[in-house]
Amino acid sequence: MDWIQVTIYTTSAGIEPVSGRLYQLGITGIEIEDEADFKDFLENNKDCWDYVDDELLTAKHKETCIKAYISDNQFGYEMLAAINASMMDLREYDKDGEFGRLDISTGNIKEEDWAHNWRKYFHTMEIGDRLIVKPFWENIEKTDKTVFEINPGMTFGTGSHHTTRLCLEEIESTVKPGDVVLDLGCGSGILSIVSLQFGAKSAFAVDIDPNAVDIAYDNAKRNGIDRESYTVKAGNILSDDALQNEILAQKYDVVLTNIVADVIIAVLPFVKRALNSGGIFITSGIIEDRIGDVKDALSENGFEILKENHSADWVEFKCHIM
Q1: pLDDT at 272
Q2: What is the secondary structure of 209-257 as a DSSP string?
Q3: Do 309 and 315 touch, CB atoms closer than 8 A?
Q4: CA–CA dist 186, 205 (Å, integer)
Q5: What is the distance between the alpha carbons of residues 203 and 195, in angstroms, rounded to a whole number?
Q6: Residue 96 gets which letter from DSSP?
Q7: For site-directed labelling of 236, which of 44, 48, 162, 247 has its Cα 20 to 30 A away?
Q8: What single string gives the DSSP state of each residue in 202-220?
Q9: pLDDT at 189
Q10: What is the pLDDT of residue 51?
Q11: Could you tell me the pTM of the whole model?
Q12: Cβ distance 21 to 90 under 8 Å?
């Protein structure tokens, strides 16, 4: 199998939060290059050698980074998009820049080749009983199923990742004609757009990454969804009061989140405010090691888990307010 080396540039203070985000995504094998530790090692162990290569002396000025390796296939690309989204979120929380620039580089892929490489790995998928997800470059025979056409890119959510599939399968059995839907951390917009395709009256989608707005609107247009029924905004719902007020101008029958465990826990009070009486909360992006943390937070915020679904190391919950 081929691998992609993913490098995240941070600081010594950022090592723990960045590593934690990667762990939440299921990445447990990482390499840490800490400039501060390396410099300290060189300065305090001079009695261990007579000569130090010039390259090592130069290396102590290199930026602290964390490296991880993901498979060079469609699942790896989905994971890379999830890493990108998670670092965008962490950057938003790090108001003082304590964790560094949190930029990402890849070892075996050029950014301009991203779309081309997606075509190699991403193909039409059947999800649940009624949904087909297909890339825009593939053609399929006429079908009675709902077809979601997507342009894969640097935003998480194509249907290939376990968490996205789990959410889509739950949406199929949950969303009813006339429902009003809220999609928190919308990425490509797949969850909210498919909800509209299944009969929802309207959907409000939000993501911390500004690029997600154009991507979600583009995917909506591809699937015949206009802006009268679909609104996409960028911002942090935990700190942006204006965005909070705009979202909470109405109540929602279904709220969707496919994000990492810590962010799910943080948004639960907001989700509770946004839900209609009798509304449903569908959430995934939870690695199995964090199930207990999320369950405890759901209970503390007054949610009852109606259904729990697993795929590989990931879990999805369907909940309502008790």
Answers
A1: 96
A2: STHHHHHHHHHHHHTT--TTTEEEEES-TTT-HHHHHHHTTS-EEEEEE
A3: yes
A4: 6
A5: 8
A6: T
A7: 162
A8: EEEEEESSTHHHHHHHHHH
A9: 92
A10: 40
A11: 0.72
A12: yes
